[in-house]
Amino acid sequence: MAEKDNPEVTIVSKGITVSYGQIVALDNFSVDVPSGIVGLLGPNGAGKSTFIKAILGLLVPNRGVIRIAGHDPIAESVLVRDMIGYMPEHDCLIENFTAIDFVSYMGQISGMKKRDAMPRSHEMLDFVGIGEERYRLISSYSTGMKQRVKLAQAIVHDPKILFLDEPTNGMDPQGREDMLNLIKKISDSDKSILVSTHILDDIEKVSDHAMIISNGKLITQGNLDKLLAGKENLKYVQVRGNEPARLDFVKLLKDSYDVRSVTQESGQTRIVFINTGDGNSIFKLSQEANVQLRAYSPERATLEDVFIGALEENGGNSNGN
Ligand SMILES: Nc1ncnc2c1ncn2[C@@H]1O[C@H](COP(=O)(O)OP(=O)(O)OP(=O)(O)O)[C@@H](O)[C@H]1O
Ligand SMILES: [Mg+2]
Known about the structure:
This protein has 321 residues and is an alpha/beta fold. The protein has 11 helices and 13 strands.
């Protein structure tokens, strides 16, 4: 049953282009998605949901080839549907169903017999932490509970490959933590999971591999440790002071260093830049500009730094700096 087609690559996308009228949502998009948990990261409108829908065969690309575990999602749609689970970004719930009826109904749509779907749905609702509420109508649920039910319906038929489109959307910090832990547990049972999100923090918690997408194009991808390790000289400095002084500091820094991004946040400026030396010269520059040095981090980059750096390298700056 759990035959290994190709343990390295689950999804292949070659030259996929998807347009909605004039808007090109995916532009000649090529990527090999490895097995395991993979983060699909990108700002709003990057093309994440479009990519997932194209892989699922829910929309037909203008051009390009997609293979999922070696299969064509359109020509072999029935087989592919059995193999995959999908948690959509927006509501897919039937509000006037109870959770148990809904999950079991979705199991039957995915080809399960009713007598198998019912006990399995109870198990999945236990797993996602929906208790006696499962007998209540979904219309009475909180956003967090709805996200859990959406996850339960995605895994009810025990698919090999899961697509989770913004699974933590609308959840509070505890709910997000729970959702990420569930995703990790699911992946322990030998499943491949593609998680789309614009929350970098979420990916850092669950994933060993990330793909960064912006404006319908793949910006960079790789093993997270490698993506972060490759940026060892990337530092950030945070300064406080009046605006002219902070601008002055940015200018001084730009004169001597490769500045990757500048972010303004209530009276402070955060600058990401490359520095192979120590922090002394940065301290001197802060004195020269008359700003207060609040933070200087010589540690390895966060995914956010990689994201900002990658966007800028590709000329697709998301915040206009
Ligand atoms: N049905 C549609 N009709 C027209 N344009 C669309 C449609 N769906 C998406 N788009 C456009 O295609 C581009 C990619 O959208 P997509 O939903 O794939 O992005 P996303 O990365 O999932 O964004 P988000 O983080 O907001 O969910 C955007 O410019 C979006 O406005
Ligand atoms: Mg989306």
